[in-house]
Write a structure and sequence with these properties.
This protein is an alpha/beta fold. It contains 37 helices and 23 strands. Strand 21 and strand 22 form a beta hairpin. The longest helix is centred in the C-terminal third of the chain and has 28 residues. It binds a DNA duplex through helix 10, helix 20 and helix 27.
DNA sequence: GCGCGCGGCCTTTTT
DNA sequence: GGCCGCGCGC
């Protein structure tokens, strides 16, 4: 560390640090004692309090930056906090550990994991890797994976780990005779499923250990193990971290709770030095936790709400400070939130209030189906921007489950509104990216069987199941891993000549890549390039004619760019560092900064939305079974969690809250009638102004208005156009309304808007190609990122700060890749770079096509009228239709 | 060993 | 509607 550059904390006076705070906030900032719980209601300024408290500890209590450990739940939250701290106390903030539980543990394990058998180059398995491994194990143990899915077994293993239950313990209790790592070990008496779980758990951990790998949950559990088994290490961290602050404490699980206790040395009975300032140099660390039990929404992944509820019992001399004043929302919104959450039994009563005034009413809308819900929302967004001066980035659409995004996206695309989707399939989960990453993993850590096996025959090189079995058998017999088996190929018996040759080729490929990586460890981007080139991954995709493969090539190129950025923004970049940052990205890390105007509407799940705020929020899919989710409705405690989720959703809104529902929603391709969500009833009647309350379905139920037409919902067009005049300006094609009720995808119609001018609006099609072209170059250094972060990344060299920069760069890329994925999914058109999706010249009499609604058909006539070309198609029993090529949702077969 | 086509099952929510 | 796994034919 370059000490003399700026070693000092910018001195902040007490007045400065307390300025603008209310009484409770100020008290929390100054609190002088070992254990503090800040029970912070939604929007009550907790991040502000947390950062000011850290500054207070530094400038008023004599703490050193290096003594601070601040834990957040996402990388983004960590980056933001670090940024705020840097503003407050100067660049010295970089010396603090501000990170997620997971990154902090990686850092600890990289340094000290050797003491529990982890070599420092260990791999971090994501959920997909872990599932692969479980599946491999199940197959070998002859477990019926239909009945016990790897997914469910893994969930169980995850539960054990979150509760710090070791595999030894499970094995001892349920299958003492089972020997992990011994081939042919079968599960004994199989009357009890616990036996199965115990065996798989044990075997899974054995394989992780031989692969020098850990999974997400291990990061926490093994760190606890380290601290508990190695007193020297424990002592080191206890002396180091004198102040521990944990955000979103209500979402911690048992393992994380214990981790905090262990790091803080709460139970080791050491006394604080008499007369010391603050926490002093020994004795228990000072612990500050911030959270809101009403926002606990992660019980499903092990979060234990009791951690926060029982904080005062758990930590001696604890103090609780309540923050109830909300600085975010109108009183109307808070009243709705309070009313909903008040129905949860057994909570400590807490009532949010605001000085901001009542504001406007909550707006309700009942649509006939999901498509119309989306259309109405799109119209409303256009109106908000046009008439009320909101920006697109002021608006967020939220939903319970990712699958709901589709109909909303389609509506936004059709209305030509720019949007960004957060979450869903992540960049690093795409197959081609995952393949490339598997190469990198296997190079960095050859013992990593899961990843090595993944790429053995990717791209296809004639090494199938037989060859793989040769390797795994040999590996098992010699108690070693697949790479070692491959490495000693010459000693392997019974290998057919042809297979031996292919295996040797693969071995040499990997040896070459390993050597290259060793020589260029500081240049991850070059390693990526080498991998893409030498492995044949790129070549395989490039020679393909599948238009989707072009996107895949782009994604791989993107991966290389991401590596290049990592390299530029990280002082001591390594391949492992790159792998690490990619392993721990979260959905919310893709989100842009609050102050950044992306010019796009944001779509995300309610879970992802936690911690965010928007002037305008649409809570969509307010139906029984959708939200609350059907799987959470039977069980009271799960229903309580849904209610907290509703509370989270409502309190995201600052000025205007919309609640919308659909009377019919397609689930697994089947239309289902949906009743209004109980949460709508929980909001006091007088707070909601319904723009449309009855749906066509409700009307039919009431026994009137049915005209028996085969348009599913006769009332649809009328209700919809009389409702909102803003639709008048939109084109209304005859087929559009009908298609909207068909429940089928209408991506096809996207391309149909494609006069070339509309393609350059930044949400797909043509713009993507050109934008990508620009990115492909080496223009990163000159970007605004380069300049704004240059100063911090050039100072000091702890990996924590680089993590921050990387994350910020990466989320940007992920964002772009999402936008790209969007366009890729929707525009086969773009692939041929034609201005219009379908070209009339491509259609001839007798061609077979597929229509989104009518299904398969045969072309009987083609009329070339330029932009207005029409084809006539015979759909058999569905009749003969004339279709405007420009708008028809069809695909040539 | 590979590729295609069919059928079953499904989705909560995520570090 | 989509993914994944399996079975068949080459």
């Amino acid at each position: 560390m370059q000490m003399n550059e700026q070693p000092e904390v910018i001195a902040r006076s007490a007045g400065e640090l307390l300025g603008g705070l209310n009484e409770q906030q100020a008290e929390a900032v100054q609190y002088d004692g070992p254990a503090l719980l800040i029970a912070a209601g939604a929007g009550s300024g907790k991040t502000r309090v947390l950062t000011r408290r850290i500054a207070w500890l530094l400038s008023q209590t004599g703490a050193w930056p290096s003594q601070i450990l601040a834990i957040t739940f996402t990388n983004k939250a960590a980056a933001e906090m670090k940024e705020r701290l840097t503003t407050l106390i100067g660049p010295v903030a970089q010396r603090m550990w501000v990170s997620t539980f997971h990154s902090a543990c990686v850092r600890i394990l990289r340094r000290d994991g050797g003491k529990i058998g982890l070599k420092s180059g260990f791999s971090i398995y994501d959920t997909a890797d872990s599932q692969r491994l479980v599946k491999i194990i199940c197959t070998e143990l002859n477990i019926d994976v239909k009945r016990y899915t790897p997914r469910s077994i893994l969930a169980r293993i995850s539960d054990y780990k979150n509760s710090l239950i070791g595999w030894q313990e499970r094995l001892k209790q349920y299958a003492p005779q089972f020997k992990p790592g011994v081939r042919g070990s079968q599960i004994g008496s199989f009357g009890d499923v616990e036996v199965l779980y115990a065996c798989v758990y044990a075997e899974y951990q054995y394989r992780l250990a031989t692969a020098n790998a850990v999974d997400f949950d291990d990061l926490i559990m093994r760190t606890v193990e380290l601290l508990r088994t190695d007193p020297v290490t424990a002592e080191y961290y206890r002396r180091k971290f004198r102040y521990i602050l944990v955000d979103e404490y209500q979402d911690t699980n048992h393992a994380q709770y214990v981790l905090v206790r262990e790091l803080g040395g709460v139970d080791c009975g050491q006394q604080r030095e008499p007369g010391a300032r603050g926490a002093g140099r020994m004795g228990p660390a000072w612990i500050t936790v911030v959270g809101d039990s009403d926002q606990s929404i992660y019980a499903f992944r092990g979060a234990d709400i009791r951690n926060i509820q029982e904080f005062e019992k758990d930590f001696p001399n604890a103090r609780t400070i309540l923050l109830e004043q909300n600085y975010r929302s109108t009183q109307t919104i808070l009243n709705a939130a309070n009313a909903v959450i008040a129905l949860n039994p057994g909570r400590k009563p807490k009532k949010l209030w605001t000085a901001l005034g009542d504001g406007s009413k909550i707006i309700g809308y009942a649509a006939d189906n999901a498509q119309q819900e989306g259309q109405w929302i799109a119209g409303e967004i256009a109106r908000l921007v046009r008439e009320e001066g909101f920006r697109y980035s002021d608006i967020a659409l939220m939903y319970r489950a990712n699958a709901q995004s589709r109909s909303l996206e389609e509506a936004l695309i059709n209305a030509r509104l720019p949007y960004q989707l957060v979450g869903g399939t992540k960049f690093y989960e795409r197959k081609e990216v995952k393949d490339a990453m598997a190469y990198l993993q296997a190079i960095a850590n050859p013992a990593d069987d899961v990843n090595l096996r993944r790429i053995l025959n990717v791209p296809k090189r004639g090494l199938g199941a037989r060859a793989e079995a040769l390797l795994t058998t040999f590996a098992a017999e010699h108690q070693t891993n697949v790479w070692s088996a491959l490495d000693s190929l010459d000693a392997m018996p019974n290998v057919p000549t042809r297979t031996a040759k292919l295996l040797a080729q693969f071995r040499d490929l990997m040896r070459g890549l390993q050597a290259f990586a060793a020589e260029n460890d500081g240049k991850p981007s070059e390693i990526v390039a080498e991998v893409l080139e030498k492995s044949g991954l790129l070549a395989e995709l490039k020679k393909s004619t599948d238009p989707q493969d072009m996107t895949r090539v782009d994604n791989l190129s993107q991966l290389q760019s991401t590596a290049a950025e990592f390299e530029q923004n990280t002082p001591d970049a390594t391949l492992n560092g790159f792998l690490e940052t990619t392993a721990l990205v979260a959905d919310s890390d893709q989100l842009p900064d609050e102050d950044e105007d992306t010019g796009k509407v944001t779509l995300m799940t309610l879970h992802t939305a936690k911690g965010l705020e928007y002037p305008v929020v649409f809570l969509t899919g307010m139906e029984q079974g959708t939200f609350p989710h059907s799987r959470a409705m039977e069980n009271e405690s799960e229903l309580e969690e849904e209610r907290r989720l509703a509370y989270v959703g409502i309190t995201r809104a600052r000025q205007i809250l919309y609640v919308t529902r659909a009377a019919v929603r397609a689930q697994w391709g089947q239309a289902a009638e949906m009743l209004p969500s109980q949460f709508l009833d929980d909001i006091p009647e007088n707070l909601i102004e319904w723009k449309r309350r009855e749906t066509g379905v409700d009307a039919l139920r009431g026994g009137w208005g049915s005209n028996g037409s085969d348009d599913e919902f006769g009332g649809f067009e009328g209700g919809y156009s009389s409702e909102s005049s803003s639709y008048g300006s939109r084109p209304r094609w005859g087929s559009a309304a009908k298609r909207a009720t068909s429940g089928r995808s209408s991506y096809g119609s996207y391309g149909s808007y494609g006069s070339s001018s509309s393609r350059d609006r930044g949400y797909g099609g043509g713009s993507y190609g050109s934008k990508y072209g620009a990115r492909g170059g080496s223009s990163y250094g000159g970007s605004s990122y380069g300049s704004s972060y240059g100063s911090s990344s050039s100072r000091g060299s702890s990996s924590g700060q680089s993590g921050r920069v990387t994350t910020r760069r990466m989320k940007k890329d992920l964002l772009d890749s999402l936008t790209k994925a969007k366009s890729a999914a929707s525009a086969k058109a773009a692939a041929t770079s034609q201005p219009s999706r379908l070209n009339v010249a491509d259609f001839h009499e007798g061609d077979r096509i597929s229509h989104d609604q009518y299904g398969l058909g045969k072309v009987v006539a083609v009329e070339d009228k330029g932009r207005n070309s029409v084809i006539t198609v015979d759909f058999g029993s569905d009749g003969v239709k004339r279709l405007l090529l420009r708008v028809a949702p069809i695909e040539k077969l």
